[in-house]
Design goal:
This protein is mostly helical. It has helices at residues 2-6, 15-28, 31-34, 40-57, 66-93, 99-114, 121-131, 133-137, 147-158; strands at 12-13, 63-64, 161-166, 169-174. It is 63% helix and 9% strand. The strands form 2 sheets. It has a two-stranded parallel sheet with strand order 1-2. Strands 3-4 form a two-stranded antiparallel sheet. It starts with a helix and ends in a 6-residue tail after the last strand. 20% of the residues are buried.
Length: 180
């Protein structure tokens, strides 16, 4: 760390990287992000983090390149997603959690548990219900076997999750849609 602090080389930046940073700054500075009810304060500092990480990645070559900025933005975005997940989880696990918070957290859990490879239906059900006790206790909406079944059906209908059958293997997989 001392070596980094003593390094006085100027870090240059490519035009592509400069343009990307400008766009990223605008994205995080938008009204939607800055005024987000839960993550607004995090978004307001996100560009600073992208810039710092880009600079750290550029230390070896002394030039910030497009790939440095892209990688830094991915790190920061993932971090923001994780913070949002943890905040929604805390709300959903509180004693006064409402149905909307329980459903939102369950959707988050399902997406995280499915991952990139997908997961068999029984494994997903067991993993989600085992890690979230309130889901088991929550009443099922009319016509649904359980709240979990209602939520997974809703996600399949919305196209966020797909049920796939290949070579006698059944799995839930994520689609490209993230909006619920």
């Amino acid at each position: 760390m001392d070596k980094i602090k003593r390094d006085s080389r100027a870090i240059a930046i490519t035009e592509e990287a400069k343009e990307m940073l400008k766009n990223i700054s605008g994205y995080y500075d938008s009204d939607e992000k800055r005024n987000h009810p839960i993550l607004g304060a995090i978004y307001s500092r996100a560009f600073e983090l992208v810039n710092k990480i880009s600079n750290l990645l550029a230390l070896e070559t002394s030039t910030i390149e497009k790939d440095h900025v892209l990688y830094a933005a991915k790190i920061v975005n993932r971090n923001i997603e994780d913070i949002g997940f943890l905040m929604r989880k805390a709300d959903a696990q509180s004693d006064d959690a409402n149905m909307s918070e329980i459903i939102s957290h369950t959707k988050d859990l399902i997406i995280r548990k499915i991952g990139k490879q997908g997961v068999p239906p029984s494994t997903l059900r067991q993993s989600v219900t085992r890690s979230y006790a309130k889901l088991k206790k929550a009443p099922a909406p009319d016509g649904a076997k359980s709240l979990y079944d209602y939520i997974i059906d809703q996600m399949v209908t919305a196209g966020v999750v797909a049920y796939v059958e290949e070579n006698k293997k059944r799995r839930y997989v994520l689609t490209d849609r993230k909006d619920l």
